[in-house]
Amino acid sequence: MTVSAEIEANILRYYHVEKWRVGTIARQLNVHHGVVKRVLSQAGVPKTNLTRHKSLVDSYLPFILETLKKFPTLTASRLYAMVCERGYTGKPDHFRHLIALHRPRPHAEAYLRLRTLPGEQAQVDWGHFDYITIGRAKRPLMGFVMVLSYSRKIFLRFYLNQRMSNFLQGHEAAFHAFGGVPRVLLYDNLKSAVLERQGDAIRFHPTLLSFAAHYRFEPRPVAIARGNEKGRVERAIRYVRDNFFAARQWKDIDGLNAQATIWCDGQAANRPCPEDTSMTVKEVFLQEKSKLFVFPDNPYSTFDREEVSVGKTPYVRFDLNDYSIPHTYVRRILTVIATNDKVKILDGQQVIAEHIRSYDKKQQIEAKEHINTLIDFKKKASQHRAQDRLIKSIPSCAEFLSQAAENGYSLRTIIRNLLLILDSYGASELEIAIKEALHRKVPHTNAVRFSLEKRRQEKRLNPPVNLDLPNDARIRDLVVRPHKLDDYDQLQTLTGETP
Fold first, then answer.
1. How high does pLDDT run on average in the chain?
2. Which residues of the chain have pLDDT under 70?
3. Most buried in the list 6, 168, 275, 449, measured by CB within 10 Å?
4. Nearest partner of 219 among 178, 187, 188, 189, judged by Cα
5. Which residues of 228-256 are buried (b: 16+ CB within 10 A; e: fewer)?
6. pTM check: above 0.90
7. Closest by Cα among 188, 203, 217 to 121
8. What are the structural domain ranges in the chain?
9. Which are the contacts of 43, defined by CB distance < 8 A and separation ≥ 6?
């Protein structure tokens, strides 16, 4: 609540001259007692002097002040328990209010304005802007922001995650947009930049160190809890959020990035430069651009690279989706290399599959030739298993099948028919029939059947019974209950016949 200058003057006069208490001043001027306390505190009156009536806590103040001097961040609840052990009978809520009046306050820290030379430094950070739903996946929309510390030139690029590949691609795109590389890049304690930090000992991410060596800049993290050291990029992110992203219409991330490029070169570049408001950011950047050093011609490999273990199905999992591979590469360790729009799968240096990258979730991205080849292989494998069974049971069957293939007969049909004959007549009879068919040079199942039927008639045997039941669950699961034969035994006794 704000009060007029006249009320503030009356508050100070009634307190210092008339010696009124805070409650009396509040009632007479019709304001809240907190307003009176605030005005008096701003005028230099200690908060402890504003409570003039005797309190239960007064006798415990020396102990409280001494404890707070040693432990300034000790909680009021812990202090309350300590004074209760020493006889305090007040309520915890009022005690917490009193502790707030007596707790020592840290001195406000003053900061120097940080100035840099042209081309000397840039600051880098991620900003989270929204979530995008792609199919069943909810992807974060992350903004990569790099700002030149001298001219305040902003580079902005949006990505669907904070993976290292996007982090490095953002750097490269910013270097090309600026036309050069600053000497120092300042980072917050990002996982993409700093893996571990203990005091002054810093362990940088090895990929970032390799990238920095390639482009010849120095990565430098800010001190812990020193956000002011990278305030330029934090203000730039707020500026992007309020002046670019708010209420913006866009269809896809490529369109959003195209708008971001126009905005960085237009509205953001035409704003006054904070270091010299008589010039725009674009004008100061033209002076700074010549101070940036030229980056090498050969680009750094910024692709996503990941080792994946393939299971028994011909797919590799990458970024929440499954991508098909040739079935001959199952049960192996393969390498996935991904750009923003493509996924390549390698076995060593050989590319064995390539797909369009999906940002959905739990999708199977398949190449038709991978699946069709697997289906054909399974069919051939089934035929090979049947063929192996025949040859193992009847060795002469190998020559029979070879001659059948030479005559152009369908091996699949012949193998199927021979298996049926094997189940009906047995291996020994089929072996004799196949040898007779080979002797007559007729490698066909009709010749085998003719030979088997001739031998059956010569032996005056009944035709073999095929015990294969129809593929009908009602027949296969039928339970046949045997009848009692007691009635037949009685009939035999009456007729005197023996079975």
1. 85
2. 1, 46-53, 107-114, 199-200, 223-229, 379-383, 465-499
3. 168
4. 187
5. eebbbbbebbebbeeebbeeeeeeebeeb
6. no
7. 217
8. 5-102, 121-289, 304-366, 376-464
9. 12
